[in-house]
TrEMBL record:
PANTHER family with a match to the protein in the record: ANAEROBIC GLYCEROL-3-PHOSPHATE DEHYDROGENASE SUBUNIT C (PTHR32479:SF19), GLYCOLATE OXIDASE IRON-SULFUR SUBUNIT (PTHR32479)
Recorded coiled-coil stretches: none
Example of a GO MF term: metal ion binding
Pfam families given in the database record: Fer4_8
Entries under InterPro entries matching the protein: 4Fe4S_Fe-S-bd (IPR017896), 4Fe4S_Fe_S_CS (IPR017900)
Protein name according to UniProt: 4Fe-4S ferredoxin-type domain-containing protein
SUPFAM superfamilies documented for this protein: alpha-helical ferredoxin (SSF46548)
Keywords: Iron, Iron-sulfur, Metal-binding
Keyword set includes Protein transport: no
Domain 4Fe-4S ferredoxin-type per the UniProt entry, residue ranges: 51-128
Source taxon at top rank: Bacteria
Length: 465
């Protein structure tokens, strides 16, 4: 089997349960298990990544805190758990040769509701990375069956926005005219009763270089596609806060020798989530070329969108981008991670004033939780004098990028949102800030509760003295 992603990190891992002869347990779901006793035979290191699952079944619990596994929490169907997907993959890989059948309808059904939340990578005792396994599965299926039109549209929508600005007006029209939304559902599978995120009238554009302070420690700001095209105010707030703290901030731009230097940078997350590995790799190479000067000069790189920022520190290893990827972990930070790090080192000089607001509610993006970034959010919000806030005890918001925009996912998306997040937001005081760093989380809250959430950067900007 020729894999589309680099799975060499799993070359030296074991295969299945080290204590039992039957690593997957035939009949583990009441006789409806996918695989028999054998661990995967085909797939090489990819098969070893599948075999990390030893049947702990933490993903089959709904009474414990955490993110994993959102689709099982919503459906209570073992097929839609990390474990169920592993058994489906195990069955596909259990043949005697490398002729793996990724077109099995049962495998497609198991993968259909995976939100790529990364909860399993942190909460599974063995660190099964189902989001990455799913990306390989989709890439293999795309190679055999072609890329679905819906996947092409959603994976590259921000590219289309950059190339065709008139799409902004088309989205606004679609959101206002119900028959157009109904046609979108029929043709593209986009839920007609969902409002699409509204692109900003003017995408983010950095001010002239003359506005960059001449002194102070350097920082490079990574403005992701979502901030650039939908919520430029988030990037503008981050710039204001960082510069108020005395940092000399420049916005990361394409490399001078980029084949298309006017096209904005993109991490490639949306493309990878639909199995478009070659397209994601091309975006990642552009990003690595843009990052090269900052990496060489040891300049911190600060990002705003959790799913994009952690793409650099995780999935880039699987895209085969070379040894420089290893340097990202020590130089690339989420906005709050950077500020918390500078505060801990005694370097942060940020004058903030109290905010006359009720206690805020904070919802963490799944990737912030999966990569342990939520303590930094608490630290940074605690810098605002007298500011009170509480964390919403919620798992996945249910939007998960474009997952919640697809008609076939509506029941799961809404059920996850209504489990804890939306009721907590509705119960909050009208003036209480709702803080959410994830773009899709903010969209889910806005769409389901009618509240406008803010990014941490926006809240800090309001508190600048």
């Amino acid at each position: 089997m020729e894999t589309k992603l680099d799975w060499s990190a799993y070359d030296n891992t074991g295969m299945g349960d080290p204590f039992g002869a039957d690593p997957f347990g035939a009949g583990s779901f009441g006789g409806d298990a996918f695989g028999a006793a054998a661990a995967p035979v085909a797939g090489g290191a990819f098969g070893k990544a599948v075999a990390l699952c030893t049947g702990n079944r933490a993903c089959l619990r709904t009474d414990s805190p955490g993110v994993m596994c959102p689709s099982f929490r919503a459906t209570e169907d073992p097929l839609h758990s990390t474990r169920g997907r592993i058994e489906a993959l195990n069955a596909a890989l259990a043949g005697a040769d490398d002729a793996v059948d990724f077109s099995d309808p049962r495998l497609a059904e198991a993968m259909a509701l995976c939100l790529s939340c990364k909860g399993c990578k942190r909460e599974c005792p063995n660190g099964v990375d189902m989001a990455l396994l799913r990306a390989e599965y989709l890439a293999q299926r795309n190679a055999r069956e072609g890329v679905p039109a819906q996947a092409r549209l959603l994976a590259s929508f921000t590219d289309h926005l950059a190339a065709y600005p008139a799409l902004r007006w088309l989205v606004a029209l679609r959101n206002r005219v119900a028959p157009l939304a109904a046609l979108g559902e029929r043709w593209w599978g986009i839920a007609g009763d969902r409002r699409l995120p509204a692109p900003a009238a003017r995408p983010f554009k950095e001010a002239s270089p003359a506005s960059v302070p001449a002194e102070g420690p350097q920082v490079a700001l990574l403005v992701d596609s979502f901030c650039r095209h939908f919520e430029p105010g988030v990037a503008e707030a981050a710039l204001a806060v960082l510069r108020a703290a005395g940092y000399r901030v420049t916005v990361l731009a394409p490399a001078a020798d980029d084949a298309n230097p006017t096209r904005p940078l993109c991490c490639g997350r949306s493309k990878l989530s639909f199995g478009l590995v070659d397209d994601a790799r091309a975006e990642a190479r552009r990003m690595m070329a843009a990052l090269a000067p900052a990496l060489a000069a040891r300049i911190p790189v600060v990002g705003l969108e959790p799913s994009c920022l952690f793409m650099l520190k995780d999935e880039y290893f699987s895209l085969g981008l070379g040894p420089d990827v290893g340097r990202l972990a020590g130089q690339v930070f989420l906005f709050e991670e950077f500020l918390a790090r500078e505060h801990a080192a005694g370097r942060l000089r940020l004058a903030l004033k109290p905010l006359d607001l009720p206690p805020a509610l904070v919802h963490g993006h799944c990737h912030q939780k999966a990569y342990g970034a939520m303590p930094a959010v608490s630290t940074v919000l605690g810098l605002i004098p007298g500011f009170s806030f509480g964390m919403i005890d919620s798992g996945c918001c249910g939007m998960a990028g474009s997952f919640g925009l697809q008609a076939r996912n509506q029941a799961v998306s809404r059920k996850l949102a209504e489990a804890a997040l939306l009721p907590a937001v509705r119960a909050a005081e009208p003036e209480a800030p709702v803080v959410a760093d994830g773009f899709s989380c903010r969209h889910q809250i806005r769409d389901g509760a009618g509240r406008r959430p803010v990014h941490v950067a926006e809240l800090l900007q309001r508190a600048l003295a």
